[in-house]
Design a protein that fits this description.
By secondary structure, the protein is of the alpha+beta class. The protein has helices at 2-12, 19-44, 53-65, 69-83, 85-88, 90-110, 120-140, 148-158, 163-181, 184-206, 221-232, 262-272, and strands at 211-217, 237-242, 249-258, 277-283. Helix content is 61%, strand content 10%.
């Protein structure tokens, strides 16, 4: 199910876009690829630090055969995009293939750049940051510069493992292989770079301010809803529910808050109804509706909220 939803999302991501939106996305993908190339040639490759996925394999292959990593980026990546053409869609495949070719070209162009630092820790941290920003920009705009995810989707359809589990297994194998190629000291720094890049990918592709969805079930739903509106400047939606065991009608409060408002919401609910059912979950994207915050009637409302 997860893989199918991912495939549909990738296929539809470019649909319905105007020409200037295509151009903007292509430009941002190119900018992301430039970031990736700088991270590789100025921080990671000169210090024998690898990233996960095909990039990591290419770095090791380039070291073993004394060839530019761009050659292996193309050779290893393109078959994955060809195989995944039907799964990911024409636009995504072409966009990603162009990103890979551009990355291969730029790593060759930037290869003469002198390393920015000889300190392995600094190289791992800042190389991971720049790499994560680049990959995040590419993903956010509907492309990919690494065929590992496509391979993971295909494995997901044939095995009981999720896409995330397959990617994790592949990257553990790749990062572990760096220990045999470069030495275990470099493999450990590569692990640092990988986790830094992983976090930066999330921040770049989904944003710094994480939102949370809130569901509250209480007989005092109107009082709680009014309090959320007054104290947080937050709009709420009342949903009709029914208890499966009792068959009694239930009123469910739904709203979206920022991460910084979570503790305040809990305090508001607890002060009105200590027996209320409260569920809070992370959400990656919110759009539509009245998304800006209204002015609160209380001084403690803060200014980081979103309004539905």
């Amino acid at each position: 199910m997860e893989a199918a939803e991912n495939n549909v999302q990738l296929k539809k991501q470019h649909n319905g876009l105007k020409f200037y939106q295509y151009v903007l996305r292509a430009f941002l993908i190119a900018v992301g690829v430039v970031f990736e190339a700088i991270a590789l040639e100025a921080f990671l490759v000169p210090n024998k630090i690898i990233d996960g996925g095909v990039v990591g394999i290419s770095i090791m292959m380039g070291h073993i055969f004394s060839l530019p990593i761009g050659i292996f980026l193309v050779i290893i990546n393109l078959p994955f995009f060809i195989i995944g053409y039907k799964q990911m869609g024409k636009t995504f495949t072409i966009t990603s293939a162009c990103a890979v070719i551009l990355l291969a070209f730029l790593t060759t162009v930037f290869s003469p750049i002198h390393r920015f630092t000889n300190d392995l820790l600094l190289a791992a941290v800042f190389g991971g940051i720049i790499m994560g920003i680049g990959v995040g920009l590419v993903i956010r705009n509907g492309g990919s510069s690494d065929g590992t995810e496509i391979l993971a989707v295909l494995f997901n359809q044939k095995t009981p493992f999720s896409v995330g589990e397959v990617v994790l297994f592949l990257n553990i194998f790749i990062l572990g292989s760096a220990g045999f190629v470069f030495g275990w000291n470099y493999a450990m720094y590569s692990l640092i770079a990988y986790f830094v890049a992983f976090k930066m990918i999330d921040i770049t592709s989904e944003g710094l301010e994480s939102s949370k969805a809130v569901w509250i079930i209480s007989d005092l739903h109107e009082e709680i809803g009014d309090a959320l509106n007054d104290r947080l400047g937050r709009g709420v939606t009342y949903l009709n529910g029914e208890g499966a065991y009792t068959g009694n009608d239930k009123n469910v409060i739904f709203t979206v808050i920022s991460r910084l408002e979570e503790a305040k919401v809990k305090n508001i609910v607890d002060s009105i109804d200590k027996h209320a059912f409260l569920a809070i979950s992370d959400i990656h994207d919110v759009k539509g509706g009245r998304f800006k915050k209204e002015a609160s009637t209380k001084s403690d409302a803060g200014c980081l909220s979103r309004f539905i």
